[in-house]
Amino acid sequence: DSYHTDKYFQESKSKTFRTLECNECVRGSCRDMGFSTKCRISMSYAEGSSWSAYEAMDLCYAGGPHDVALSVDGPMTNTENIVIDHIDPVDASQFAFELSFGCQVSITGLFITQLADGIMGMENEKTSFWKQMHNKNAIPR
């Protein structure tokens, strides 16, 4: 919808997107969602907002701009003390991993009026973004 910063994710434009089958539910449980049976997840908050989604999987990576290289003033080092003399968005894809996530099908309350699209949990669970990155060896620790 026009109230969010970005358009809806178009599953058909991803060659690696797939909806999880009922025997693959990571966080949710298999439920009839009106249009098909899928792994359903949902959350309600004390102030009245809620969302409902089905579980899916796709390749993803965290990265910056994808149209130009990022500039760095002088060499940098990472946690392994390896000198990095450039940052190229093309290199970000080497950190791609399969991420399980929820595709929202309904939202209420503040989720309707906020500019951001969706919500990203940072809890200390196996399904959190950073834990999935670590478990798939996309980040060292």
Commentary on this structure:
The termini are far apart. A hairpin with a 4-residue loop joins strand 2 and strand 3. The model has no long low-confidence stretch (mean pLDDT 79). The chain is mainly β. The chain is globular, with a radius of gyration of 18 Å. Strands 1, 2, 3, 4 and 7 form a five-stranded antiparallel sheet that branches. It is built from two helices and seven strands.
* Radius of gyration, in angstroms, nearest whole number: 18 Å
Report the sheet with the most strands, covering strand number, pairing sense and barrel closure.
5 strands, antiparallel
Beta-strand percentage range: 25-35%
3D shape? globular
Q: Low-confidence segments, ≥5 residues, pLDDT <50?
A: none
From the N-terminal CA to the C-terminal CA, the straight-line distance is: 37 Å
Give the overall pLDDT as a whole number: 79
What percent of residues adopt helix (DSSP H or I)?
under 10%
Element pattern in H and E: EEEEEEEHH
Count all strands and give the number: 7
Per DSSP, the total helix count is 2
Structural class, judged by helices and strands?
Answer: mainly beta
